Amino acid sequence: MSIPFSNTQQRIPRGFANLLEGLAREVLREQPEDIPCFAAEYFEDLLEERERHGIDPSEWKEQLEELKLKRSELKKQRPTLEQVSNLPEISPILT
C-alpha cells in the first residue's frame, strides 16, 4: 500500500506526543503480549485519572516542562557567589 506524498503540513494536537510517549514507555516497561489491548486499558486508566483529579494527563509533562523552564529562568536571575562577595558590607543598625 502506498501513500501519496503531500505538501500539507499536519499539526500535531497539543498533548498527543505526551500521550504517545507515556504509552510507549509503559509498553517498553511492561512488555505486553497484546499491545492494542494494553493500550486500551492504559488510556482507560488515564481517563479515570482525569475524571478523578480534574487534570488531563496529556498535559502533565507540558506543565512539568513549564515549571522547569521557570526554575531555570529564576536560577539565571540569582547572583553568583562572586557578585555577592563583591557587595559592600552593611553594618547592622543598632537602636
What does this structure look like?
This protein is mostly helical and 95 residues long. It has 4 helices and no strands. The longest helix is centred in the middle third of the chain and has 19 residues, at 35-53. The chain is elongated and about 75 Å long. The model has no long low-confidence stretch (mean pLDDT 79).
Task: Write out key terms for the chains shown.
95 residues; single chain; mainly alpha
User: What share of residues are in beta strands?
Assistant: under 5%
Which structural class do the helices and strands define? Answer: mainly alpha
Please, what is the average pLDDT? 79
Main β-sheet description: none
Note the run of SSEs as H and E: HHHH
Helix run count: 4
Distance between termini? 87 Å
**Share of helix, binned:** 55-70%
Low-confidence stretches: none
Radius of gyration: 24 Å
Strand and helix layout:
Layout: H1 16-30, H2 35-53, H3 60-77, H4 81-85
Question: What is this entry, summarized?
Answer:
The chain is an all-alpha fold and 95 residues long.
